[in-house]
Every structure is written in C-alpha cells, then in structure tokens.
User: Fold this.
Amino acid sequence: MFSSESFLVTPEDLRHHGRRTIDWVADYLSSLESYPVLAKTVPGEIAAMLPRSAPEEPEPFEALLADLDRIVLPGTTHWQSPGFFGFFPASASPPAILGELVAAGLAVNGMVWATSPACTEIETVVLDWLVELLGLPVRFRSQSQGGGVIQDSASSATLCALLAARERAMRGNAALADLCVYTSVEAHSSVQKGARVAGFSPAHTRLVAADETFAMDPAALESAVRTDREAGLVPCCVVATAGTTSSMGFDPIRAIGELCRAEQAWLHVDAAMAGSAAVCPELRSQHDGLELADSYAFNPHKWLLTNFDCDCFYVADRASLIDALSITPEYLRNDASESGAVIDYRDWQVPLGRRFRALKLWFVLRSYGGEGLRRHVREHVRLSDWFTGVVAADPRFELCAPPALNLTCFRHVGGDEVSERLLSDLNATGRVFLSHTRLAGRYVIRCCIGGTWTAERHVEMLWRLIDELAPAP
Amino acid sequence: MFSSESFLVTPEDLRHHGRRTIDWVADYLSSLESYPVLAKTVPGEIAAMLPRSAPEEPEPFEALLADLDRIVLPGTTHWQSPGFFGFFPASASPPAILGELVAAGLAVNGMVWATSPACTEIETVVLDWLVELLGLPVRFRSQSQGGGVIQDSASSATLCALLAARERAMRGNAALADLCVYTSVEAHSSVQKGARVAGFSPAHTRLVAADETFAMDPAALESAVRTDREAGLVPCCVVATAGTTSSMGFDPIRAIGELCRAEQAWLHVDAAMAGSAAVCPELRSQHDGLELADSYAFNPHKWLLTNFDCDCFYVADRASLIDALSITPEYLRNDASESGAVIDYRDWQVPLGRRFRALKLWFVLRSYGGEGLRRHVREHVRLSDWFTGVVAADPRFELCAPPALNLTCFRHVGGDEVSERLLSDLNATGRVFLSHTRLAGRYVIRCCIGGTWTAERHVEMLWRLIDELAPAP
Assistant:
C-alpha cells in the first residue's frame, strides 16, 4: 500500500554517537580547569561563526561534535569550572546528567498522572524523601494536605505561591487591585517580577526594610501591613527569604509567620540556595518558624548536585494551589484524574507539559545517599569558613555581611573603585569567576563556594590570586 | 591545611556508567513495540515500590538501571511508542536526546548573555533559521525589531504574549480590571489559564464562537469586541489558534489580525502542533495573515523531532515583551547587558534561569537538514490522509471535523457510548493509544500521527485493530 521510507536516525545511531557524546562530556568535565571560566567572547562573535540558514542536507554527527569544540566551548562561561565562584553554583553531577539522559530517552510528558504514572509518583515520593532528609515541616508531605512538586526555578515557585495567595484572598472577596505583597529590599528580583506577572499592582508591592544583617525587619513589616490595612488594602502575601541572593541574609521566619497568621496572609519562604544546607542537621537554624509557612522552595540545582532545572516547591495546603491553576478541558479528562486518587501535576504549575525531572533527583539521592550529600555540603561550608577567615584577617579587606554557609561578601578597604578593579582583574585571569553586588550602597565582591568539582586547592588558588592582585590598603 | 576529601562520583564514573545508560536508552528505543503503550498501573502502585526514605549510603549505579526496568518502564505511558496516537506527539529523536545530554554536561545557566554567550547566540541564530525554514514573517527575525526565544511550552508562550499585551495596554493607561482577552471556544485551555495567571478578570475572558470547521468566527469576535467597547472595556489581546488541540481547526488569522490592528489589540497566534508542518511550503496556508500577528508560537517538541521542552516563541516588537518582564537587580548588572548589544533572554521569559535548550534544536536541524524535516512531516501527513480515507469509506464511522495535516477526528455512527467503548477497547490492547475529545457535544476519537518512530505498518495495524473491534453500524 505505502512506499516505505526509513528514518534517518536510528536507535543504533544513538548508541554509536551517544558513546562518543558521553566521552565528549566526560573529557570536558576532566579538563574543566583548562578553560577560562568567564567567556572572553565579544557580542556577535558566536553568531558570526554560524551559517545564516539551516542546512538543507543532513550533516554528519562529527560536524556537531567538532563545533562543540570550535564554537561552543570558547563561547561558554564554564559554570562547572572549579574556579566558578560567581552568582550561585549550577550544581550538575554525573548521576544527574545521566538522569537527564534517561528522561530525554523516555521523553514522556507527565502533565497528568495517566500520561506517565511513574513520572508523577516518583516525583511525589522523592519530594517526600527530601522533607525528611532536610527536616522540613511534616505538613509539606504528600500524606498531609500539602505536598511537593518540581518547578523549573525558584522564580516559578514564587509565582505559584503568589497565585495561590491571590486565589485565597480573592475567594475571600478581595479585589486584585487591593491586594498587597511584601518582601524585603534584599529579596530576589523574582518576587517583584512574579508579583507583576500575577497582576498585583506594582504600587502595592512593598519592599520592607532590612536590618544590619540584611534580614527583613519584622517591625517594619508590621508597620507596612498596618498602614495598608488602615488604607483599606488587603495584605495578601509575604515572601520571606532564607538566604538572600546578595549576602545570605536570613529573614526571621517565626516572627514573620506569626504576623502572617494574624493577618491571614500567605507566607512563602524562598530558600533557593541555602535550603540545600539543611541536609545537615547542624545547618537548620534557618528553619525556625517554617511550620508557619504556607509554601517553601529550594533549588537542588543550586547546591545539591542536581542539574537545572530542579526547584522543589512545597505547599502546606495543596487545595489553594490547585484552585489557582486548574482548568480541565475535555481532552484531558480521564478516569484516574476523576477518581481523585492521583496527583495531576499540571495543576501545580503554570505550563501544561512537563519532563520527567524527578529522575535526576532520584538518581542523585541514591547515588550519593544522605551521608554523601551532607559530606558535600559540609566540605563547601568548611572551605567557605576558611576563606572568610583569611579575608577577615587581611587588613586590605573588610567583610560586608555576616558570613554564612557558603557565601562571603567582602570589599577592599580602598573603596568601590579598588574593589571593582580587583574583581575585574581576578576574572581577567581566566582562572576564577566571581560576581558582585551592592550592600548598604557599597560595591561588594561575592565568593560563593558550591561547585560540584570545587575542592580546597581551588579555594586556595582563589586566595593566592586575591593576595597577589589586591593593592595595599 | 585542609584534609582533602575526594568526590564520590568522577568524570570517569560518568564515562563508564554513561555508556551503559546510552545502551539502555538505545535498547529501549529498539524495543518500544514490546511495551503496552498506555501504562496499566493503578494509583499508588509505583509509590508502593519505593522505599519510604532516601538511602543513607550510596547505591551502585546497577541498582538505578535495574529499577528503570523494574519500576519505571512498567509504570510509564510510552509516548515514544510507534503506537502512540494520543493527544499530540512528544517528538524526541536521537540528535535531540544527545543535544540534551551535552546541555546537561555543560550545565550553563543562560539567564543573561554574559553567563554563556554561546547559549544565547546559538538560540537567536537557530530561531532565525526557523523563520526562514518555515516561511514565517521576517518581522519575527532578530535583525528586525522582533526575535525568537525558546520557552518551555506553548502555555508559557501564551502567558508571555498576554503579559506583553497587558503591558502595552496599561502603558496606554488602561486599568487591568478593564482589559479583555478573546480566544475561541476551541482554543487550548492554556489561554484561559494564562489569562488567569496574568490577572485578567475571568469575567473579561471571552470565548468566541467557532464555525462548523471549529475555527473562530470573526464576525462573533467583532461583535464581542464592539460590545466590550460600548461597555467601556478595553480589548487587549486576541489569541488565535492555527490548529486547535481538539480538531485542528484554523482560525482565520487575516480577518482577526485586521480587526486587532483596528482595535490596537495584541494578536498572538498559537500554532503549537501544526506550526511544524510549515517546513513544507505546500502546508503553509495556515500562515495567511500572520504578518499581522504581534507574536507567534509553535512547538518543535510536538512534531519536529525535538525533545520537550522546546517551544519557539516569536515577537514582532521585542520592546513590549522586555518592558513586561525586565527587572534588573545589581547582582545581574554587567557591561555586555548595559551596552545594549546583546540579548538577555531572562527578560523574554518568566523564570530567571534557563538551560541551553538551543543545543538540541541545533543538533536536530543539522542532523536532519531542511529536506529531512520535510520528508518527516510529509510522511505523517501521507499516513494521516490514508487513515482518514479508510475511516471515511467505512459505513461504521463518520468524520467529525475536516481532516487536516496529521489529525483525524471520527466517531462510530452508533453514538457516544459505542465510540467510548471502542476507544477503551483499542487502548486495552496495549498496542495503540488514542485519546478523545468532544466536538459539537459529541464524543470523538482523535488519531494524531506524528511519532518519531511511527511508520506505515503502525498505522495499518491501528486500522486493523479498529476494523476488528468496531461493531457493525
């Protein structure tokens, strides 16, 4: 009947080229130190190396691998380099990479339970494992009224928390235009972005003052809430941060949570990077009061050896989240969903489709074990403590925030320009990359230690470079 | 100084276990037909096979691979099976899988240009390639005022379009509470969800009537817009669909676009699945009027051999999108961004972080070439035409919508119950999976042909099963 047509690329091609690709990745990870950490590319340089049109005929796989070496590697900032101390770590690891590979091979869409039960149930179980491993409140477990879900990022988790908070407030008959959102001046920009996306009035997003440790001042929060109540507005949601991006400040969750309870405002806690530290019982002081939170998020893709994207988002009452995000058209109806016995994660997130992201997390937790993860975090904290110590002991530098976990904020006593030049000189060596922020109006260098391959000799090297390049006070 | 601690999992472990994982994926793809397409799992079955806690000690990689066979495969709906004709295809392919693997290995975060220039520039170039390959309006190219970006899903693309539309209207001093969104009754549920997320009043989201081909009726749209204007409301955004989810209806883009121009409303066109067909010049009639659209999205992850997540989202004027989504905190400031010479894709999407998703698309376009992609799409259209023909010629069945591209909607003439039982019996064979919808109130079976491994013998098998299982009229 038909004229048959064979496919161009077969499973045997995948086997053959896949081994070469695995070798390419393993070779890359073995040679990370040979690349300048920060790309030295100028704008447009990569684009100029590419043809202006897609090819008409298939190219051999060799050409792709060659272009990875010729075009991609020289144009890449090497987040996996052990000399990467910028922003926050991008915590990839061999088991997570292979988990991603299996997920790509299965290529299921876990939008509802029925479209891949394993995708949904492994996610639920693994997120429950993390509640125990991190000592999170039991109300975030799926056996309670709550539960966890993987989002792509803390930005999306914050947005979902804001949407659930908005839904709860509007079911109480508040108008969107009257709802207020509170976060600290030190909170991540994704809170303001999420509030804008969710339609909260930018005029009603309050950036609450922080104290000298860059933690939200609960008295300032209380005052802002009172002022809004007096103006007839409705306090809807507070986003507290456990470990701010700039300086690892910890908002006082218990005080904030008690206020939220009294005001019936939703409390979301963003622990994007710092949350992973809670695998170690001695690093859980940040959790004090967390049982008062309505939702919580942290990113294993930042510091728990799991490739981006993997943000773990927990809610204490899943009904509010689902009410905010569920719409069921006929073509997605199925017996399992209507039975109420399953989770359909499409109702826990903004997009409909979803990859099998739990696989990489499952692989990581099993490949390292709880003990391996604790060892990983403790080593970075130990290296960070050492680094903080040598910086603090040197008269050329001053610390700019209380050092905490894996982050040190410091500046040259010579001021902003000297600090900025030092950072620029450090990054120009190609051996390290650090980024900056401003704290109390001053230019500050951040050293964040959390890379999968970062060991003591890399932190020692960083200090030697700083010591060489920093001018006298 | 330090006590050194070696890492648990090395690049050499990745090489060794990676080869076995590649073999596992290649073996899986070689044996797809041996699995029942739809998982036969009952709720809770997978969860019950997993331990209640994460392990304390590392498990060997063998245990992970064994559990893929023991737990994951029996609990998975096999979207890659050549017998998968449900929902829409999840278009994975060997080059895309290997592109994902390389992206996981590099593990860069392309949030801004400087954090990985190659991640940004390859994305821009590849999305420009697609403008040419699909014959899209040149205003969507990055050299114009517009440009393309990869989103995770068409849901997120629709949300971004709504946010840009909202921003443009509100800069014109309209109030959010007065803004109206229009889409057809046949549009994907993500339009209503996106409008809710973006804070549009659900009372101002209009589901416009469709005609007998399930395309939006432009006269009904015009009437709805006029009514809203008369009520003092502001028509903000129309989301038109090129290929509806239920039945592949095509909204008349030119007529809708002209109305949008006159009303200064944003026009977004959602071509999630059908858009890929435009690689073939003879399948581009859906584009008529597309130069009037402000934004456009289609999903290579549906029908263009690229793993989820890969939605290509284009805007004609990137300023509106960036205005809606840009917030720049100090810690993300950098020279390249401030020069204005680069694209920072974080301002084109809701999340901050982003994977190097362009790699898989680059690998696909180069591995198949334009000609290979056209052959792929044409083969599915040819198979779909054949299938439609045999269904239409059989007195037991009637077509329920104009057959188009790769989708056939049909029902048993015996009515809803007979059709529903037939679908259930078909899926129970384990050899195929189809899904359903409702059109004009009636239960309809959908056959969507677009799987990477689906060839003529699988469509013939599907027809044989239907022929065997369907009762006489």
